[in-house]
Amino acid sequence: MAKVYTNLLNVYTRKGDSGDTGLYGGSRVSKTDIKVDTYGNIDEASSFIGIARALIEDEEIKKTLYKIQEKFIIIGGYLSSDRNGILKLKEKISDADVEELEKNIDYFSKDLLPLSNFIIPGENIQSSSLHVARTVVRRSERKIVHLRDRREISKEILKYINRTSDLLFILARVTEGKEAISYISNDIMKRIENLESKNNLISRTPKREERDIKSNNMLTLEEAKKIIIAGEKKAVEMGKDFVFAIVNSEGNLILEEKMDRAILASIEIALKKAYTSAALKLDTSILTNLVNPGGSLYGLHTDSRYIVFGGGVVLKKDGKIVGALGVSGGTVEEDMTIASACVESFGK
User: Same domain, yes or no, for 170 and 246?
Assistant: First the structure.
């Protein structure tokens, strides 16, 4: 797209002082005209997309947003033109532009989990900015439909605006996931560092370590590997891929394993399930009823640190909790089936 430069010395013309404005093509309309309101909303939507682009760190998403802003300039030009102006426009929105958005929606959606509830924006500033942009684009869509009821509007423009809001919703979810994975990764590194520090301390007192192992108070790395191998074997039988996370009794990570086709979001969920079981000394499937109104743990479901549905189980030796396992990748029932196979192998 060719760049258009504005002579800033001539920004004000005084032609709009009377409350009307000129359209591309020569005609003038009131600034309260629905056409002006419509292209003004497109300008506003592009500005909010720009805020999101400035806040987001992911380069692929930034480039995607910039391309949308370029198309919004074309849409704004169309909406701010009269019939004569539209005939003079060199660039217009096409079906190919709509198809590109649909391809982006499919591409960015591929690793997302199905939604089980409404999303409440506010997880982080990056995703929240995309949600704001999405709602402004939705308003712009309503304005265009309103305008279409009175004047002829290109159907490709309406399609493009509709798909844009869908894509912004998907990008907001992707951004939330990336932020969560980054947070979990950093948290895992801290836990590993803490675990290494503890191991170094224990290594200076070998008699204590030997005593703990002999009394079965510790969950070893070899035991964790055995548990996950059993889970992966069951997963192969089911024809699905899962993520496994095993923590010690204090919630510190011992081992995490992602099967090849398991989605990235399951990494965070599996670890949270394991942490929840270790922290509360309960299987996460039990928590479902406890967090309901009147339950002893009512309100826990609002704490983002915990998972309150099946797939997290405690691991016991001689009746003593030595750690916990988290499984994610399928339905709640499938996660629980895999977790049961893991626990069964641990008891052998």
Answer: no
